[in-house]
Design goal:
It is a single chain. This protein is of the alpha+beta class. It contains 14 helices and 17 strands. Helix 14 links the parallel strand 15 and strand 16. The protein is elongated, with a radius of gyration of 27 Å.
Length: 457
């Protein structure tokens, strides 16, 4: 099977230089919905209590980190939350069992579950008949963030990290919520009401942060910085934490993208520098009806993208028991050591694994024109976190040809051919093609190009 890879001249030269494919993470691709799953939260009280315990402990850990960095390095760390964005959720609280943090986390978790707003949330959502989608998880976390901040600041005071006279209640936003009213609403209406409250609350807190910045001269610099960071935590932490909950459900994965067509003008424009680039031609190896490309240490399957397929739904709480490194027992254990029933539920064999792979092969129907195929690189053991480790050398015999774009310059063609000759020495079985635009049919066609240079003298 022939597959095509549109490249700019610069990226094509680099790919030839390395003799390798770079496997990109979904965020590096041009579709923000890459790897999208419709995540929801539906669990019993113990599951919700376990999640909320992690929330308050993660909040404390991030606040303590900021305070220690400020004290030790004397800087305000204005981009503190952005710097910690990928480290907000503590994956496994049990990793601190042999440190002083263990006692702090146990105390914070139990006290947080006794808070009035926390108990309302647990009681409402812990009945297991409510699916929480989208912004609703952020609403849940934001409903309890004032209480969480209060507990965390008090604990930091006891540790000498915050002055005892600091007033952490300088900006509290109280939700006016009737959970009885919410219980009587359908899913769509509840979602709408919650999003309204969430938007109003965010606007109010952002106004408070702006007012704090505008009135900086009324407070000392140290107090100003601390109030600003705590208010930032109240505004942004629930959102960042909620987003990262979705990310920890499955290990990272990376992809290399190809197309089954070399004549799509939009793709030449988007991926090949407005037709000034090139298109590599690859040939896969067939085995039992499946297509593969060989790499230095293994063969990886090439599979087509499924466009417009039904969205995959996944319950966050169902996923946790598959992630041993997260210590599912800790996440799914509530107040007084009560275990969630989620720990004992049985799922279809292979369902977790199937969804992990499948989500990397789905795109909306808007992208159908690309007719994309992909190689997926799983990263269950986090061995490809570093981007340089994701350059994997492939069998150079897989590369069969180059299609020059309509506007590829002669100098760029020469540089590519020189690079190929250094890489392969002999180009006698290598094919060159030229993309052309047909005025009559108004489509791009590809013709074989006769070049006399076949080997390195």
């Amino acid at each position: 099977m022939k597959l095509y890879r549109y490249r700019t001249i610069q990226s094509a030269l680099l790919e030839l230089e390395n003799g390798a494919f770079y496997f990109a993470k979904p965020e590096e691709l041009n579709d923000p919905l890459e790897g999208y799953l419709k995540i929801f939260w539906q669990g019993d009280k113990a599951a919700w209590e376990g999640l909320l315990k992690n929330f308050v402990c993660s909040l404390f850990y991030n606040l303590q980190t900021y305070l220690l960095m400020t004290r030790n390095f004397g800087v305000g760390q204005k981009n503190y939350l952005q710097d910690l964005k990928n480290k907000v959720v503590i994956m496994n609280l049990r990793q601190f069992d042999n440190s002083p943090l263990n006692k702090i986390f146990l105390e914070l978790g139990e006290n947080f579950l006794l808070e009035n707003e926390t108990q309302k949330i647990v009681s409402f959502y812990g009945e297991e008949n409510i699916k929480c989608y989208g912004k609703e998880i952020e609403f849940i976390l934001r409903t309890t963030v004032d209480a969480a901040c209060h507990l965390c600041v008090e604990k930091c005071k006891s540790l000498g990290l915050i002055p005892n006279n600091f007033d952490e209640n300088f900006f509290d936003v109280a939700y006016e919520i009737s959970f009885e009213d919410l219980k009587n609403l359908g899913d769509a209406e509840r979602k709408r009401r919650i999003e309204e409250m969430e938007n109003l609350n965010c606007d109010a807190m952002e106004s408070g942060l702006l007012a704090l910045k505008l009135n900086r001269r009324r407070v000392t610099d140290a107090i100003y910085e601390l109030k600003q960071q705590i208010l930032r935590l109240k505004i942004f932490f629930p959102r960042i934490y909620g987003e990262q909950l979705k990310e920890i459900m499955y290990p990272n994965g990376y992809v290399v993208c190809f197309s089954e067509t070399a004549t799509n003008s939009a793709m030449w424009g988007n991926y090949a520098d407005n037709h000034k680039g090139i298109c590599f031609v690859y040939e896969t190896e067939s085995l039992d009806g499946r297509e593969f490309i060989n790499f230095a240490a293994k063969s990886l399957e090439v599979k087509p993208i499924n466009y417009g397929a039904q969205i995959i739904e996944r319950n966050f709480f169902d996923t946790l028991r598959y992630l041993n490194f997260l210590r599912a027992e800790d996440w799914l254990t509530g107040a007084g050591g009560v275990r969630s029933r989620k720990l004992d539920e049985v799922e279809k064999p292979g369902e977790y694994e199937d969804i992990y792979c499948e989500k990397f092969y789905r795109k909306t129907a808007d992208w159908y024109h690309e007719r994309e195929h992909r190689i997926f690189l799983a990263d269950k053991f986090y061995q490809y976190d570093d981007k340089f480790s994701r350059n994997l050398k492939y069998d150079l015999n897989t590369l069969k040809g180059i299609i020059f774009g309509i506007r590829t310059t002669l100098d760029d063609k020469l540089e590519l051919i020189q690079k190929l000759l250094r890489l392969r020495k002999d180009l006698s079985e290598f094919e060159f093609y030229q993309a052309e635009f047909d005025d009559e049919t108004q489509i791009i066609s590809v013709r074989e190009k006769l070049l006399l240079i076949k080997s390195l003298e």
